[in-house]
Amino acid sequence: MADVKIRIHRVPIFELLYAPSGEVHNLVERTTNAVHIATLREAPVMTGAMLGTIGKDIRVAPGRSVTGIVESDDEAALWVQQGTGFYGPRATPIVPTRRQVLRFRGKRDGALLFRESVDGQPANPFMWRGLRRGTLFGIQSWTLNRMI
Questions:
Q1: Are 101 and 113 in contact (CB under 8 A)?
Q2: How far apart are CA 58 and CA 125, in angstroms?
Q3: How far apart are CA 131 and CA 124, in angstroms?
Q4: Which residues pair with 72 in a beta bridge?
Q5: Which residue has the higher pLDDT, 94 or 125?
Q6: How far apart are CA 44 and CA 53, in angstroms?
Q7: DSSP state of 55
Q8: What is the pTM of this model?
Q9: Over the stretch 42-87, which tens digit does the pLDDT of each residue have?
Q10: Using an 8 Å Cβ cutoff, are 30 and 38 in contact?
């Protein structure tokens, strides 16, 4: 009976998978860049403040994974992405907490508006659309995680 010995050289395999010059890292980086650009294009622009909060990162856990992340730390991005429902986030009408009326600027002309309460806003899943459009060029599997 013949003995078969297989010797695996871990250094070249780890370089292929996890090194910044490795093929896996390059694929994740290209995909993350494409998703980031697509997300910026999909983001609703009123003042442009939310665009500055959308960032990207590559995280490497050697021996485990290479992960590309596109994220925003702006709370408004969460409410735009998921919507607030017909009412506010706690399923109650959106009403003022410190004054008698809500005060905000209108979208069309910037005029100052006063309201006793407002309906919530519908979801505008711009990050989901950016993810879908950014991954069209290759064969990748991805998940969308909600992190609050």
A1: no
A2: 23
A3: 14
A4: 54
A5: 125
A6: 13
A7: E
A8: 0.71
A9: 998 877 788 889 999 999 887 778 889 999 988 888 888 888 777 6
A10: no
